[in-house]
Design a protein that fits this description.
The complex is a heterodimer. By secondary structure, chain A is an all-alpha fold. Chain A has 10 helices and no strands. Chain A has 2 domains: about 1-90, Rna Polymerase Sigma Factor, Chain: A; about 95-175, Winged helix-like DNA-binding domain superfamily/Winged helix DNA-binding domain (Arc Repressor Mutant, subunit A), CATH 1.10.10. The longest helix of chain A is centred in the last third of the chain and has 25 residues, at about 150-175. Chain B contains 6 helices and no strands. The chains are: A mainly alpha, B mainly alpha.
């Protein structure tokens, strides 16, 4: 009984630590894996891993940064193993030019269009843009999380933002949407 | 919001030299209703970013310890059940074939051994009467 209570205490403490940023983990996973089901599975996997390492979390300065780094690494590994085993997903077809017209028709809404443009960015740019423009992390946090130099982050971020701007104006010019 | 300032901030934004606070100013501007027409092309970007931030992880959080306890409990229960079934079938099989497995002489000698055991057991219980006597006398002593 005593041990059971103790376990429950720890579980609620763990939830108090994890709940504030679980959505951020999910959004990061979805940014990389695209499919929401895969992102949910990845998030669950990360939360289980965090639970098994719960005694170490307290030692970290920021549990959130630790969890975000774990999520990033986990998803990049998933993507790598998928490519290695030739299990290319449907969304990898997006780089194909023939499907681009279909894509334009699908993306009626220009907000959805931004999402499609982001899907085509290189992984590193996706990550930087997600962390900065969606989650509003400051540069120091992004540096630590992605293990990148400040200049590299700014270059990647600037490129990502300009690509979105370019593709958005392209779309405006063709008057679709 | 001054348009000049917004245009300046936009330039910084695309060069990735704006601070978090400056980017927040831009976000507020583009999420408002009065965006200048020539800047309207940027609105979807900021709208998408704020929309993306609203996504939630809706699945239930996994509670590993609880689940583990149930998992192991079910494993133990199944194992216990199997052991029970094994011994049950074994003993009933033996009882059914007692005459087939042993000769008459073997059974007779076993019965003889059991009677000997019973006799000696009874001898042992007879000795207990002495104890009863002892108890009687202690009771007397205690009552008085």
């Amino acid at each position: 009984m005593f041990t059971n209570n103790q376990q429950r205490m720890k579980q609620s403490e763990f939830l108090n630590v994890v709940l504030p940023f679980k959505d951020k983990l999910y959004r990061l996973a979805k940014r990389l894996l695209v499919s929401s089901e895969e992102a949910e599975d990845a998030t669950q996997e990360i939360l289980m891993k965090l639970w098994s390492k719960k005694n170490k979390i307290e030692g970290y300065k920021s549990a959130e940064a630790f969890a975000m780094t774990m999520t990033k690494n986990y998803c990049l590994d998933r993507l790598k193993s998928k490519q290695a085993s030739n299990l290319k997903l449907v969304h990898s077809n997006y780089s194909d030019d023939s499907s681009s017209l279909q894509r334009q028709v699908e993306a009626r809404d220009s907000i959805d269009w931004v999402q499609r443009i982001m899907e085509e960015l290189p992984e590193q740019q996706k990550l930087v843009l997600q962390l900065r423009d969606v989650e509003q992390y400051d540069y120091e946090e992004i540096e630590a999380l992605l293990d990148m130099k400040p200049t590299a982050i700014r270059v990647a971020l600037s490129r990502a933002r300009k690509t979105i701007r370019e593709k958005l104006t392209e779309k405006h010019r063709y008057g679709i949407g | 919001m001054e348009l000049d300032n917004i245009e300046k901030l936009l330039k910084k934004y695309f060069e990735a030299t704006a601070t978090v606070a400056e980017e927040e100013t831009l976000r507020m501007y583009f999420l408002s209703d009065d965006v200048a027409p020539h800047l309207n092309q940027y609105t979807p970007m900021f709208q998408y970013f704020s929309k993306a931030k609203e996504e939630r992880y809706t699945k239930k959080l996994p509670l590993p310890t609880k689940r583990n306890i149930y998992r192991w409990a079910s494993v133990a229960a199944v194992a216990l059940f199997m052991v029970g079934v094994y011994f049950n079938t074994r003993t009933s099989a033996v009882a059914g074939s007692l005459e087939e497995e042993y000769t008459a002489a073997e059974i007779a000698s076993a019965q003889e051994a059991f009677t000997l055991l019973a006799m000696n057991f009874n001898k042992g219980t007879e000795q207990l009467y002495h104890l009863e006597e002892f108890e009687k006398s202690t009771k007397k002593f205690l009552i008085k």
